[in-house]
Design brief:
The protein has 16 helices and no strands. It has 339 residues and is mostly helical. The protein has a domain of 223 residues: Hypothetical protein af1432 (Orthogonal Bundle), CATH 1.10.3210.10. The protein is flat and about 65 Å long.
Amino acid sequence: MDPRPIVSATYQKERLFLSPYACFSEKTRGRETWEEPCPMRTDFQRDRDRIIHSKSFRRLKNKTQVFLSPEGDHYRTRLTHTLDVSQIGRSIARALSLNEDLTEAIALGHDLGHTPFGHAGERTLKRLTGGEFEHSRQSLRVVDVLENEGKGLNLTFEVRDGIVNHQTGGHPATLEGKVVCLADKIAYINHDIDDARRAGLLRDEDLPEDLVEILGRTNRERINRMIMAVVTESLGQPDVRMEKEVFRATYAMRDFLFKRVYADERARTEEVRSDRMLSVLFGFLTEHPGELPEFYRQLAEKWPLRQVVCDYISSMSDRYAIHVFQKYFIPSSWNLESL
């Protein structure tokens, strides 16, 4: 059976059911290197699959979201955060009749370049590179250069654009990219509140009452309120935005978390330790590039060494970064019987 009608039927469904402001799969700006189209999947569906099957995506399960080395199985990791963003993004895209496949691909790839130890690790690499490192740009570098043994994933323009522009201040070229920008905030604000409560850093009554009145008292209420504020404000519009009152309250809650959770003394203590460890690793590998794995040594023949060291360190999971540090700087036990 010829499978080509399958993707053609998908294109037809999009023409019938998607908003005129959606990004249609058959109208993608394409890839930097042309490839034969898939007879079953749209280009955005192929991009989603490539990201899910990438090594960088699998490593997200062992990268910190907020709390470094927490004791407990229910704290979020960078992977569970990514899945949260994907689910919220798809819910919004579906309600607005936007392209769910494109939204999902952007969401799944948006944090591929994130460092070990969460934003603490990102701040360390940003300091060590004089402000050049940023995880959104590194995520783009992952899919363009580092994945697939240095060949990259050759993703479409729209997915790459959404990945690099997902942070506050970014300007995505598609409405689906704008959806992911907001879904990212909705996800981390709410799951960080939940994790902070689990860690004993926050109680329900600590949340500002004026913000609770607007956003809701539970995670479920807040997520629903934020999503609905996006949908009702954006439905049938050539833009994606959140109702002003909810938008202001959302960012005020974000500011509250920065003061009460992210800057907490206990969290800062672990951040100081991770900063020292990554700083030492960065200095050591910059001075001893021969210690880099073979892939990164080859990469250093094409790219500046400091960039390649950043590539290596940012690719690490938390536990692998600790392993590499121990390998070079923590004495090993002697096997006296072999002497």
